[in-house]
């Protein structure tokens, strides 16, 4: 016989497929077999139809398409013989699902088979209906299934009950039709019928409140009797698992009792006794027994149980925590987290065991136990629990320190009743896990210290000691730097010494040593180094003998590759050299930080971040532009790209920081990492830098336009007769002359990187306000000369751009020469839309072509 004819036996096909050595051979065998089955289907071969469907089911299980055999299943179901129907229904359940439209054709056959005189055919129909029943089929066939629930045959009853579960899940409105038959099933002696009836009642309670009330009234007594009989029944080998009698029926009964007792005190009171009996008599040394106990505990915690019964349940969970099986301990911790809201006092008795779980080797148990400990903390046990957690922090795994420090910080903030205890505990956390402490935690600590004047000296001395042993913890270093900058004289002069402190001597030079060490050790941490420079500037006023040394330290950073540090060093050096008369007022101690305002901002900021995280959808085309100094800018709204620069979109950084404390510290690294914070209004730039400036109260205050490259902002002067001191060079800045007819626009730094700088100056004729002459000056900041220098620019569609030839294509190294070029820009929507420009510079360095690009949107208003 042809091995691939429709007459091939199923076992022969399976043997041929298993003999294949490669996937290609298997596909070839399956392809030939499917072709033979298609031929048989087209010829309407009735003799081998059941065999073909059996083959298709095996092919389907291998993952090959078999949709062409679906109609053959319907033909087999419509046949009169049991063997054909059996294969047909089996194929129906495997090859089809409830979403197939062809399934509607089988409804009539199912209805006929549900009314068949042969119980085995009825069983086949019930089994198929219970597996693939759709909502339409459920409505059509529910009366037949309801009738079969009342038949005498236990096997038919059991299958009808399971089919009824599928029906009420698909169509909850039909639940009321099954209430009376379901209640009658609970009186059956047959085990299969009983367990199916219990499950049917449970599902009825889930889909209908009326069903819960009906079963509560008519079935509670019977359920208690069944559970008592099962618990007290002698050994029955048929349903015994590891010495526990029928654990599956136990668990189903307990779940149904929980559904009935939930929110009903009378039912709960009635089942309290049997629950106590199950909880007391069930063995806990077997896994099956533990499953019953867990379900019993969940039932007790879910109903209106007595307090004594709840204590018993929680004690069972306490025993679970001592089990060696990690799964049992994990589910116990999960259940205890729910139990805390019901009976916190009973859970508190197992606090020691729960703390041991925090130290477990299993990561999931550690995290769950830590969450439970956090829920257990209250005003009375906060101190001992915090001490235990901090002691464990010292020896905990690195990957767990983050979660542990976060929980400890929350506990200390929430339950601290005195400032000194809060400060001490936070210092311990910073010393042991400062690298894992989140920014808002140490920010809150600084706010607390500034609001505790009697503890400021104690705090700065404690931090100085901690720095000597834990200088590798970044958060500790930052808090230490801030406190030394603010309260350095308290450290040196031993101001506000408490009785518990040991005497110590710290010189002015020692305090400067700490800050200098921070500058050298944390070479990659710009935030810490920036804070250190600010602290040094403050100490230069408070410790005059060290002023010269501080000046030398700051001067070293004037050539820093990090523009943030470079700008700060230049500004601070200018203050020390040229503005001694106002330096003391500039570096006064920070005003007391408003604790309530900080907490409010912190709360609102965290909520805003949550909303932003949920609503933000990253663009598929937007990427970040990386500048030569390593600063990455976020993507922005696209500009019309005429130079094929769409791969790198940049945005205008915000000139203010969302972080309240960073703003107070004068550090805005998040928003302008390469140039510091831009003034937000008409405040003197140096006064604003140190957060003590006074805004200029007039309508003609200069407006600040932030550069999209993150470099120094440009201030736009407007006509005024007031001369403003330039605190960086001591010279007055002249305003525009009154009565001048030609508009004057300030020059801007349009682009700057570590290797190239571009400056724009502007001229415009009053009679042509929409036409602008831009004079571009290019400066080479690197030590290598540039050749074949080409400047390209792109503008939006409403702008016309004309580039005049450049003065040269050779750009000398180290700023020893420049290239100039004139651009004529015509803004057709002058006064409505601002100018914007994309630029790209291409040049050669040692015969190697390089390019730089960026976006310019800091043009002065009015262009």
Furnish the topology, listing elements before pairings.
Blueprint: H1 10-18, H2 23-42, H3 49-61, H4 70-78, H5 82-95, H6 107-114, H7 119-132, H8 135-148, H9 154-170, H10 179-185, H11 191-207, H12 209-232, E1 240-241, E2 244-245, H13 247-261, H14 265-281, H15 287-302, H16 307-321, H17 326-340, H18 344-348, H19 351-358, H20 363-376, H21 382-393, H22 398-415, H23 419-433, H24 439-450, H25 456-469, H26 474-493, H27 508-521, H28 526-542, H29 547-556, H30 563-578, H31 580-586, H32 595-615, E3 625-626, E4 632-633, H33 660-665, H34 685-689, E5 703-705, E6 714-716, E7 724-725, E8 732-733, E9 748-752, E10 756-763, E11 771-780, E12 787-794, E13 799-803, E14 818-827, E15 837-845, E16 848-856
Antiparallel strand pairs: 1-2, 3-4, 5-6, 7-8, 9-10, 10-11, 11-14, 12-15, 13-14, 15-16
Characterise this structure:
Among the domains are: 579-743, no CATH class; 748-856, Immunoglobulin-like (Sandwich), CATH 2.60.40.1230. The protein is built from 34 helices and 16 strands. Helix 10 (179-185) packs antiparallel against helix 11 (191-207), helix 20 runs parallel beside helix 22 and helix 23 (419-433) packs antiparallel against helix 24. The longest helix is centred in the first third of the chain and has 24 residues, at 209-232. The protein is flat. The chain starts with 9 loop residues before the first helix and ends in a 7-residue tail after the last strand.
């Amino acid at each position: 016989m042809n091995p691939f004819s429709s007459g091939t036996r199923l076992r022969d096909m399976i043997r041929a497929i298993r003999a294949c050595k490669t996937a290609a051979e298997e596909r070839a065998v399956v392809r030939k077999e499917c072709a033979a089955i298609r031929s048989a289907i087209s010829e309407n071969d009735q003799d081998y139809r059941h065999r073909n469907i059996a083959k298709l089911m095996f092919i389907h299980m291998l993952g090959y398409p078999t949709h062409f055999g679906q109609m053959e299943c319907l033909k087999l179901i419509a046949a009169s013989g049991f063997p054909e129907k059996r294969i047909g229904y089996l194929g129906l359940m495997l090859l089809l699902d409830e979403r197939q439209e062809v399934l509607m054709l089988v409804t009539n056959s199912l209805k006929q088979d549900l009314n068949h005189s042969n119980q085995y055919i009825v069983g086949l129909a019930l089994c198929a209906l219970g597996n693939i029943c759709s909502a339409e089929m459920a409505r059509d066939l529910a009366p037949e299934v309801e009738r079969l629930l009342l038949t005498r045959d236990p096997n038919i009853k059991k299958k009808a009950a399971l089919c009824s579960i599928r029906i009420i899940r698909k169509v909850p409105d039909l639940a009321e039709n099954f209430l009376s038959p379901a209640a009658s099933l609970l009186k059956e002696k047959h085990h299969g019928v009983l367990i199916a009836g219990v499950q049917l009642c449970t599902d009825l309670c889930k889909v209908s409140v009326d069903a819960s009330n009906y079963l509560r009234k008519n079935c509670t007594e019977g359920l208690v009797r069944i559970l008592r009989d099962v618990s007290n029944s002698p050994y029955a080998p048929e349903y015994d698992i590891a010495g526990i009698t029928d654990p599956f029926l136990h668990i189903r009964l307990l779940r149904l009792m929980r559904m009935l007792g939930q929110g009903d005190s009378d039912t709960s009171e009635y089942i309290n006794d049997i629950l106590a009996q199950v909880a007391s008599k069930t063995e806990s040394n077997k896994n099956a027994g533990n499953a019953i106990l867990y379900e019993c505990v969940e039932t007790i915690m879910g109903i209106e149980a007595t307090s004594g019964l709840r204590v018993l349940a929680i004690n069972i969970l306490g025993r679970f925590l001592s089990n060696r099986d990690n799964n049992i301990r994990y589910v116990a911790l999960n259940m205890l987290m729910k139990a805390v809201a019901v009976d916190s006092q009973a859970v508190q008795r197992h606090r020691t065991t729960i703390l041991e779980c925090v130290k477990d080797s299993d990561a999931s148990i550690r995290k769950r136990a830590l969450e439970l400990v956090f829920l257990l903390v209250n005003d009375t046990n906060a101190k001992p629990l915090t001490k235990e957690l901090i002691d464990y922090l010292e020896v905990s795994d690195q990957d767990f320190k983050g979660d542990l420090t976060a929980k400890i910080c929350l506990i200390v903030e929430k339950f601290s009743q005195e400032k000194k205890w809060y400060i001490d505990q936070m210092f311990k956390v910073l010393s042991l896990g400062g690298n894992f402490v989140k920014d808002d935690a140490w920010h809150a600590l600084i706010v607390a210290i500034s609001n505790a004047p009697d503890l400021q000296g104690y705090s700065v001395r404690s931090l100085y000691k901690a720095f000597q042993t834990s200088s590798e913890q970044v958060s500790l270093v930052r808090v230490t730097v801030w406190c030394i900058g603010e309260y350095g004289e308290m450290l040196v002069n031993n101001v506000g010494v408490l009785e518990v402190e040991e005497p110590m001597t710290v010189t002015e030079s020692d305090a400067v040593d700490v800050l200098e060490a921070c500058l050298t050790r944390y070479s990659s941490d710009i935030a810490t180094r920036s804070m250190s420079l600010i602290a040094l500037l403050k100490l230069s006023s408070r410790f005059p003998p060290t002023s010269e040394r501080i000046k030398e330290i700051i001067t070293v950073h004037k050539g820093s590759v990090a523009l943030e540090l470079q700008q700060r060093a230049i500004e601070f050096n200018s203050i020390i050299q040229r503005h001694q008369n106002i330096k003391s007022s500039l570096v006064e101690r920070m005003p007391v930080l408003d604790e309530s305002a900080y907490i409010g901002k912190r709360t609102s900021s965290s909520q805003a971040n949550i909303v932003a995280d949920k609503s933000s959808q990253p663009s598929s085309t937007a990427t970040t532009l990386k500048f030569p100094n390593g600063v990455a800018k976020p993507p922005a709204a696209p500009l019309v790209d005429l130079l094929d620069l769409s791969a790198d979109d940049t945005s205008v950084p915000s000139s203010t920081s969302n972080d309240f404390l960073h703003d107070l510290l004068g550090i805005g690294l998040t928003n302008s990492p390469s140039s510091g914070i831009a003034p937000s209004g008409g405040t003197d730039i140096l006064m604003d830098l140190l957060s003590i400036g006074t805004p200029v109260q007039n309508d003609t205050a200069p407006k600040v336009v932030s550069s999209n490259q993150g470099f120094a902002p440009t201030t736009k002067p407007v006509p005024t007769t007031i001369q403003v001191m330039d605190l960086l060079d001591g010279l007055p800045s002249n305003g525009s002359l009154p009565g001048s007819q030609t508009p004057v626009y300030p020059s801007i730094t349009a682009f700057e990187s570590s290797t190239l700088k571009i400056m724009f100056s502007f001229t415009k004729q009053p009679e042509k306000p929409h036409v602008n002459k831009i004079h571009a000056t290019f400066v080479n900041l690197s030590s290598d000369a540039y050749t074949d220098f080409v400047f390209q620019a792109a503008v939006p569609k409403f702008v016309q751009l004309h580039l005049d030839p450049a003065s040269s294509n050779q750009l000398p190294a180290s700023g020893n020469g420049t290239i100039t070029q004139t651009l004529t820009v015509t803004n057709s929507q002058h006064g409505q839309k601002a100018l914007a420009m994309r630029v790209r510079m291409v040049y050669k360095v040692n015969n190697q072509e390089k390019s730089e690009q960026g976006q310019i949107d800091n043009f002065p208003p009015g262009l």
